[in-house]
Specification:
The protein is an alpha/beta fold. The chain has helices at about 15-30, 45-55, 70-80, 105-110, 115-120, 120-130, 225-245; strands spanning about 10, 30-35, 60-65, 90-100, 135-145, 160-165, 170-180, 185-195, 195-200, 210-215, 215-220. The strands form three sheets. Strands 5-6-7-4-8-9 form a six-stranded mixed β-sheet, with helices on one face. About 30% of the residues are buried. This is Gfo/Idh/MocA-like oxidoreductase N-terminal domain-containing protein.
């Protein structure tokens, strides 16, 4: 495929274990690359991708983090950047998948890197975005448990994980990820500042419709990650394409 005449860029959305080698091969073939997160489950391998990209500075090489392209998250960042909540001090963020009663997550864990790498990587990226890419980690604590998905222990994985990252400069990030949400997908973030707080998707809903029934009032919510961030993926692809075609900075 990389030898196809006229090919200028590739999107890599294969299994996690293939991201790094395929990205490096594409870079070496002088192609622009948009690679789905994560680059790898290994720090050294991830660094090798970054090194390969630096050797070809004329190429656009991007690891896709979809929430940076979601309009609600962008609005929240702009509000914070404008100083409307003061200095951000605490970030609380979660990535929670709808529960599945089959063996999907057990099989997926064998190549995904586990819930911390697969799910919380989104929240970790948000912490770096909102706190600043130059944020330096001071300490990390993480715990997890298997509540509803036996078999995950074979891959050293869990179906509920909590992580706390302390940064130098007085900032703390709290992450929660789960594979057992019953209503559907619930990904939310709070950024707490010295003069206010920003919340993104704290009360999830597909739209503004409420169903008033004898048992109460309910709203439909996204069932999968793609349902929630479909437009973010579209925007991510479009902006990457614009950067390639118009030689814009990523």
């Amino acid at each position: 495929m990389l030898k196809h005449p006229g090919l200028e860029a590739v999107v890599i959305a294969t299994s996690t274990t293939e991201h790094a080698p395929q990205t490096i091969r594409a870079i070496e073939a002088d192609k622009h690359v948009l690679c789905e997160k994560p680059l790898s489950i290994n720090v050294e391998i991830s660094q090798s991708v970054a090194d390969a990209a630096r050797r070809k500075p004329h190429l656009k090489v991007m690891c896709g983090f979809s929430r940076r392209f979601d309009q609600s998250y962008r609005n929240a960042y702009e509000q914070m950047d404008a100083g409307n909540i003061g200095k951000p001090s605490i970030l609380r963020s979660q990535t929670c998948d709808k529960f599945r009663g089959d063996a999907y997550f057990v099989e997926y864990a064998k190549k995904s890197g586990g819930i911390f790498v697969d799910c919380q990587i989104h929240d970790i990226d948000l912490a770096l975005w909102f706190f600043g890419q130059d944020s330096v980690v001071k300490s990390v604590t993480a715990v997890g448990t298997i509540s509803r998905t036996p078999g995950l222990e074979e891959s050293n994985d869990v179906d509920n994980g909590v992580g706390i990252v302390e940064f130098y400069g007085g900032k703390v990030a709290y992450f929660y990820s789960s594979r057992m949400m019953m209503p559907g997908q619930h990904d939310m973030t709070e950024i707490i500042g010295t003069h206010g707080k920003l919340s993104v998707n704290a009360n999830p809903a597909n739209d503004l419709v409420e169903m008033h029934e004898p048992s109460g009032i309910r709203r439909e919510i996204a069932q999968t990650y793609y349902d929630r961030f479909e437009q973010a993926f579209v925007k991510e692809s479009n902006e990457f394409t614009e950067c390639v075609l118009d030689d814009k900075k990523l």
